[in-house]
Every structure is written in structure tokens, then in C-alpha cells.
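Anyone up for a design puzzle?
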């Protein structure tokens, strides 16, 4: 089996049974495990009888840890990077060190494994495979409104904390009162819940009780056919100029923030 210097290792987002055998083997074989919170990672390691040494690596010490990692790797040792849960670098630290190690010529690989976004989307109905992931939403209501408006023609996927999800859904409803939404919490755990409904119904579902667990949500796209922009007219203008369907979809999606695939389908329908 090919060996690497630095391994990016996903860990379970809830159910410990979701860890892969390769992840266990790598965590046992490397010399050091870099993790966000040693206390959290240690619970996982203890469960699988992994004795590897851990060092902290989080968003507050990313840059200063680079020299330490370089020192370890130049001694011929190997490092695995994990986050508290899920896949590192997806709304978790790691990008800074990975960039530096690639520049230094070290061999890096990422293992397949748990990811909250994919776990969530695999059980939510969608029109096609295109979506926009915006990570954790900002705290400012004005910034949330701006993001919701910016991606109104895309299925917008986001992370949110349980104590803020109700407020976030209220802001979304104010901006797009007729949209559909999906919210998942406690994914892979005993009390897993995924709700898909009109925004008002989803809001009421979570507003009526205490919400626990990590949250993944999606705001379904709005159909551009119902907007004030005369899409068909713009398609005709570009078609008369001999632009091809793919070119038209790229142009109009870029200018008006439409979903490119939907524009393409509309071009073929006309």
C-alpha cells in the first residue's frame, strides 16, 4: 500500500460505527494525530484502542503549528489530521497546513468518510445534483438576508447551531415566505430527524420545542420563471445571435444568478 506523509482522516459525525477500517488503521500507524480538541478525539481513540499521541491543531493555532508539523515530517514521521467530527477542511481547520505541506513537497492524501452535508442531502429530495454550500451562516440578520437573496435560485445548504436555527429560519421566512426548507439534526444518531416542508411549517416544528444536536439545513431554490426578469425573451435574443444552449445558460446564470442547469433546460424547451 502506498504510504503518505500526511493523512486527512474523517471521523464519525455521531455513530461511531461509521468509521472506516482504513481510518482506524491509519490512526494506529501514524506517529502523531493532530486534532481540534484532544478531549473529544481521545474518546474516539479510546473506543478503538488507539494509542497514538495527539497534539492540538485548531483555527487559533493553525499558523504556529506549521513549523511543528514540518519538524515532525522532516524526521521521517507521519501525521494524521482529524476534526472533532466529520471531514477535516469542510468548515473545519486544515487548509493552512495542507497548503504549506503541498508547497514543501510532502505527500498528502485524504480518506473517504463521514460528512454531514452528504449524509443530509442523500435523504432530501432535490431536482438535480447542483447545490450551493455556504458553510456556517453569519450571526448578523442583514448578512443572512444577503446570502439568502444571493442564492435564491440555488438549493442553498448551510450549517447552523441548535440555539440559532429558529432565529435563522425566521429570517429566511421574512425574505422568502413561500420557500420550502429542509432541516436535519442529530444525523446518524438515535434521535436523528430530517424535516422537509414549507418554511413556515419547518419553523413551527422547531420553534415549539428545545432543539438539540448539530444542524444541517437547505433552502430550496426559487423557480426563476416566476421572477420579474423575462427569461424567455433573453434566451430568444441570444439564440438569434447564434449562441448555443450551453453558452446561453452560462451567460444568463452569470448575469442574473440563475441556476445554470435550469436555464439550459429552459433553452431546450423553447
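Challenge accepted. My sequence:
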Amino acid at each position: 500500500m502506498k504510504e503518505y506523509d500526511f493523512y486527512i482522516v474523517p471521523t464519525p459525525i455521531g455513530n461511531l460505527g461509521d468509521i472506516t477500517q482504513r481510518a482506524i488503521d491509519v490512526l494506529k500507524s501514524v506517529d502523531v494525530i493532530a486534532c481540534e480538541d484532544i478531549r473529544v478525539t481521545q474518546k474516539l481513540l479510546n473506543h478503538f484502542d488507539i494509542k497514538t499521541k495527539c497534539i492540538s491543531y485548531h483555527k487559533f493555532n493553525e499558523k504556529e503549528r506549521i513549523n511543528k508539523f514540518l519538524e515532525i515530517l522532516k524526521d521521517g514521521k507521519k501525521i494524521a489530521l482529524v476534526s472533532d467530527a466529520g471531514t477535516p477542511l469542510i468548515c473545519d481547520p486544515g487548509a493552512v497546513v495542507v497548503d504549506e505541506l503541498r508547497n514543501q513537497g510532502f505527500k498528502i492524501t485524504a480518506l473517504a468518510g463521514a460528512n454531514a452535508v452528504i449524509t443530509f442531502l442523500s435523504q432530501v429530495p432535490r431536482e438535480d445534483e447542483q447545490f450551493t454550500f455556504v458553510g456556517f451562516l453569519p450571526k448578523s440578520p442583514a448578512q443572512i438576508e444577503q446570502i439568502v437573496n444571493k442564492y435564491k435560485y440555488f438549493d442553498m445548504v448551510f450549517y447552523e447551531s441548535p440555539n440559532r436555527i429558529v432565529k435563522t429560519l425566521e429570517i429566511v421566512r421574512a425574505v422568502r415566505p413561500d420557500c420550502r426548507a429542509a432541516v436535519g439534526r442529530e444525523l446518524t444518531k438515535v434521535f436523528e430527524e430530517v424535516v422537509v416542508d414549507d418554511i413556515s411549517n419547518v419553523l413551527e416544528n422547531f420553534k415549539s420545542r428545545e432543539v438539540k444536536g448539530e444542524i444541517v439545513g437547505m433552502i430550496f431554490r426559487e423557480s426563476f420563471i416566476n421572477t420579474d426578469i423575462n427569461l424567455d425573451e433573453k434566451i430568444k435574443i441570444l439564440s438569434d445571435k447564434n449562441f448555443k444552449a450551453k453558452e446561453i445558460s452560462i451567460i444568463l446564470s452569470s448575469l442574473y444568478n440563475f441556476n445554470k442547469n435550469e436555464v439550459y433546460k429552459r433553452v431546450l424547451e423553447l
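A detail worth pointing out: DSSP finds eleven helices and ten strands in the chain.
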